[in-house]
Amino acid sequence: MQFALSEEHRAFRDMVQRFVAAEMPKDWARELERKEDEYPFELWDKFTEGGFHGLGIPEEYGGIGGDVMMQVIAARALSRTLSGLAWLWGITQFAGAKSLTLHGTEEQKRRFLPDIASGKLRASISLTEPGGGTDVLGAMRTMATPTANGWMIQGEKIWSSQSHVADYLLVLARSDKSVAKNHHGLTLFWVPAKSPGITITPLKKLGMRAMGSCSIHFNEVEVGHDAVLGTPGTGWQMILPMLNNERLLMSAFCLGYIDGVLEDALDYAKQRKAFGKVIGQFQAIQHFIANIKMAQYSVECMLMDCASKSASGQETLLESTILKVISAEESNRCADLGIQILGGMGYSADTDMQRYWRDSRLQRIGPITDEMARNLIAEQLGLPRSF
Ligand SMILES: Cc1cc2nc3c(=O)[nH]c(=O)nc-3n(C[C@H](O)[C@H](O)[C@H](O)COP(=O)(O)OP(=O)(O)OC[C@H]3O[C@@H](n4cnc5c(N)ncnc54)[C@H](O)[C@@H]3O)c2cc1C
After folding, report:
1. Residue range(s) defining the domain that contains residue 272
2. For residue 295, how many C-alpha atoms fall within 13 Å in the half-sphere facing its CB?
3. Pocket perturbation via mutation, ligand 1, pick of 134, 141, 214, 360 by most ligand atoms within 8 A of CB
4. Which residues sit with their C-beta closer than 6 Å to ligand 1?
5. Residue 196 maps to which CATH number?
6. What is the C-alpha end-to-end distance of the chain, expressed in Å?
7. Total domain count, the chain
8. Could you tell me the pTM of the whole model?
9. Tens of pLDDT along 137-166?
10. Using CA atoms, how far apart are residues 259 and 11, in angstroms rounded to an integer?
11. Is residue 212 part of a domain?
């Protein structure tokens, strides 16, 4: 495997890195993250100012275009300082821009994509239900029933991130119970978040506090036919390529967490003293830092390989699932080492290690747990399905 960024991708990376360094420093992100009841609209506006919302959206719909490589380059650069708050941008990227670009009608694209590109429209995604996220299809109780003018949605979702401030919710619901297999008979809806009958409640959580992840109650929510994305009954087949993209995006965020951890660990190791020496002179600390660097290099190689294959149209479900597990586990291990290197200051809310640790911890659970990802990898190797 040999991978080199094109000149265009290198120029884009340099531009994004400069913007992030100037406009989105770590200490600002730290302050925003800790205000758990205040969604950071000012950060959303910075994404707009930097043109990030237009990424992946074709120019004819008001975007700046760009392939998966550009998406992962931006994701890595953003999460280096923002850590998990980079998901504020990432969720609308794949729940809004990706879903509509892939599955929207011409009318839906013309109506919504320009608003996403200009930062006027925020989206969230609601797949997971209180009965379980790993067995998302088995646990799904949210029903969509045809009405004279469209559909009526009834049910409950959980953990839907930034839905309390979203304009539209991408919702997967069962529209047909009489199917032989539970991945059939599902429909994807693009639901106005302020529709009558929708109640959204933010939940308390460990990390990405300012972003808000919510439970959503749908009580006889009426939507028109134009709220359906793609063909009714094929929602699961439509969502699969988006989940693959989400794994790449998540892994790029994890690599950004590792970048942030390495920077802070090195800075601290070079200036903190013990026994009359800088702690970076101790072999134990050097090994911790070497481990972080090794993780950074291996995740980077895998991410670049997987993203470039995906950008050239190759199927990467196996690779992106492997990458998902390794990047989540490695970033969390690196953040843990980072805390160890900083000692007590690693546990302090006034440094960023704890933020990287909390945010990377989530990626071992969502968007898919490491255990379920391993099940899928084993299955792709020809072993019988274990669940
Ligand atoms: C902060 C946060 C933000 C989130 N944001 C969103 C969002 O925006 N939209 C959305 O739809 N969802 C979101 N999620 C949900 C996330 O995708 C789920 O939490 C995840 O899929 C796991 O589901 P679960 O929590 O129900 O765990 P469960 O499915 O209950 O799993 C519990 C444990 O059992 C294990 N397990 C289950 N089945 C198997 C099996 N067959 N083999 C081995 N082990 C198994 C799991 O690996 C896990 O360890 C978010 C979650 C969190 C915590």
Report:
1. 237-380
2. 30
3. 134
4. 124-128, 132-134, 159-161, 205, 213, 362, 365-369, 371-372, 375, 387
5. 2.40.110.10
6. 34
7. 3
8. 0.97
9. 999 999 999 999 999 999 999 999 999 999
10. 19
11. yes
